[in-house]
Each structure stands twice: as C-alpha cells, then as structure tokens.
Amino acid sequence: MVKSLQPDPEFRHGKKFVTLGTWDSTTRRLQFVSNNINISWNGWTPKIPHSRCSLPCEPGYYKVQGNLKCCWQCVLCPFGSITNAIDQPGCFVCPLGFTSNKNHTRCLQLPEVYLSWGCPIGIAILFMSGVGFLCSLLTFAIFYRHRNSAVVKASTREYSLLILFLLSCIFLLPLLNIGRANDIICKARPLCLGFTITFLSSLMLTKTLRLLLIFKTKVLSRSIVLYSIRTQLLISFLLTLGVIATIVSWIFLFPPELTLHYSETSTSIDCGEKADDLLMIILGYTAALAIPTTYLAFKARKLPENFNETRLIGFTMFTLCVIWIIFVPTYYDSELHNRCIVLCIALLITGFATLICMFFSRLRIILFQPEKNTTELVRARTFDYTMRVRNGSTAAKNLRRTSVVTIGMYSIPPTEG
C-alpha cells in the first residue's frame, strides 16, 4: 500500500494521508487507485512526475545505453544520417546524393552544382558569346562585301572568310558548357572544340607558310602548286583530320560520360576525367601547330605591309599560346563546378584576341581609310620589297626586265624602260 500526505482543509492540521495505490514488486509498477485523480505531487503541483532515469530519444537522436537498463543517453545523429522514430539504437546513413535536414529526421537531395543558364556568370558568358558571334558575323559580312578590294585580296580572302567562320563557331562553343551536361553533350564537346581550334591553327600555319614561300622562294614557277590556296586548304584539312580521328577513337575507346561528384553539401556535375584527358590531348595537338606558326610568322615579319599578315598571325598565335598555357594550371586548380567557367572564359578570350589581332587593322582601312585600299598601293609595296629583299634573285631579275610580278591574285603591269 502506498500513501501520500495530501492537503485537506477539513482535517485539523490541514493535511491527511491518501492512498495512492499499490506497488507490484513483480512488475515493478505502481497501480494507482482510480478515484484519486486530484493528487498534489512534489511541489504541490497536479502534474504527475516521471519516475525514469532517461527520457525517450526523439527522432533525429539515437540511444546510447548506460550501465542501467533504464538509463541511456540521447545523441544527435551525425551529419548525413537520420532517425525517424523514437528510441532508435542507431542512425540510418542517407544514400549518395542526399543529406540530412537540420533536425536529422529525413534525407534531402543535395543540390546539383553546374554552370546554369540563369546564374549571373552563365548570363555574362552568354552575353559575351552573343557579342563575339555578332562581331564575327559583321566582320564576315564586311569582308564578303569588299571581297574584291585590294586589302581583302591581299589578306587571302578565302582564308579570311574561313577564319571568321571558325571564330563564329568558337564564340558558340561556350553554349555547350552551359547547362546540365549529359552523355551526348560530353561526347560533342571535344569534337566541336577539337575541330574548331585545330582547323583555325592549321589555317594560320598554312597561311603563314604560303606567304613565306611566295616571298622567299627564288623561282616561283617550280613549286607553284604548293602555293595554291586549294593545296594549302587541303593541308589544313588533313592536319585537322588527324585530331578528329584521334577524338573519335578516344570517344569509342574511353567514352566521356556524365559523372556526379558528391560532397557534404552539393553534387558537382562534369564529364569525368576521361574528358579532361582528351581536352589535354587536343590542346597539345593545337600547341604543336601554334608554336611553329609563331616561329614562321617571326621569320616572315619583314614581308610587304599589305601582305604582312604574318605579324598579325604571329602576335595572335603568341597570345593564344599564353592564354592556353595559363589555362591548364588554372583549370586543374579550380573546383569541379568552376572548370566549365574557366574553359568558357579561355574560349571567349581566344575568339576576341584573334578577331581583334587579325581583322581590326583591315576593318579600319576598309571602313575609315579607303585611300589605302587600292591595288596600286599594294603593287608598289610588293615591287619595293622585291627590289630590296630579293635583289639578285631570279624573280628580281625578271621583275627588272619585265616589271611584272604576280603575287596571289595581283599582277603589276609592264612598264617601259
């Protein structure tokens, strides 16, 4: 029998003993008397106290048992694990791509991190790509409209139009790196990049070599086929075909695929290490074309001004070498989700640098200095170069005798005396 002293104003001392119930030693439980519902407990409060060593562990916590069976400690689940019921002996680890919420009671999917169309950097890259693409199209239209002018012909209009087309493609390449990637995009990225940047470098190489051979060779007629535009374009295409074959073979043997990289707070998305290895192969092949182009352009730096795009090509290729040399360590030092941003910036700088270095001076002459865009000026400078630099050569002797020289599509008419 269990009794408790309870307040009662009817008794002499204002208190009396009231039977609470009986104690069952077998079940170790107190059986309360049903009619004793208004009992004042410790502190004279009606709230029934809990006769427990430890309270039940809430969801988000797990139970660590103590020395006594009725005593334990509630411990918060570690980051990335949960419990969704009371008194759980352990926590459940969230699957890959998920993490626990603040209360550790359920798993939430990790946010995917990539260069999205709506983020500020994505919008900026998209805007600059559009500006570069429009500038390339506008320059292409100006060159095509003035395709029969002296400056455009002297710069080899077929090469110039092809380079402008490739520059337009370069400005579109960042679009492949914006948005969530998939297996198809992962395979398309190296193909488009490899074709565009390698073909551009090949055109620069063959164009420089063609100008150098024309002005440095003693007798032009012996190897005239090598100087033709068709032959040089064919060489450029064959050089590009080599890297395309390498890329296609790599895609079949080691296909780049969408890869998810999990961290505690996010999931980074890219095309995996195989895509990075292929990117380095493409850049290495391009460097093998850019370095000799720069050297040949330096050798041809004294060509006649109207034909001397080799200076522009040399400066352009040197600038591109610097850009991509800086790109490689920056790319690998960046976080996975920032590598696309680094690549996009490198492509945009490449496009703008080539466009400005190769075509700005030509556009200035075409649009604002038309008096320099004359065939007579081109002929005069070519004649002067031949007399100064190639004095004593077969070409110079013939030029003295006939006063006729043919370079590309230009001929200096005969003069008397």
Protein described:
The chain has 417 residues and is of the alpha+beta class. The protein has eleven helices and 14 strands. The strands form six sheets. Strands 1-2-3 form a three-stranded antiparallel sheet, with no helix packed on it. 30% of the residues are buried.
- How are the strands of the biggest sheet laid out side by side? 1-2-3
Task: Please report which band the strand proportion falls in: under 5%, 5-15%, 15-25%, 25-35%, 35-45% or over 45%.
Answer: 5-15%
Q: Give the termini distance in whole angstroms.
A: 144 Å
Structural shape: rod-shaped
Summarize the SSE layout with pairings:
Elements: E1 2-7, E2 15-24, E3 29-32, E4 61-65, E5 72-76, E6 81-82, E7 92-93, E8 98-100, E9 107-109, E10 112-113, H1 120-145, H2 150-154, H3 157-172, H4 183-216, H5 224-227, H6 229-253, E11 259-262, E12 267-270, H7 272-299, H8 309-333, H9 339-368, H10 375-389, H11 394-402, E13 406-407, E14 410-411
Parallel strand pairs: 10-12
Antiparallel strand pairs: 1-2, 2-3, 4-5, 6-7, 8-9, 11-12, 13-14
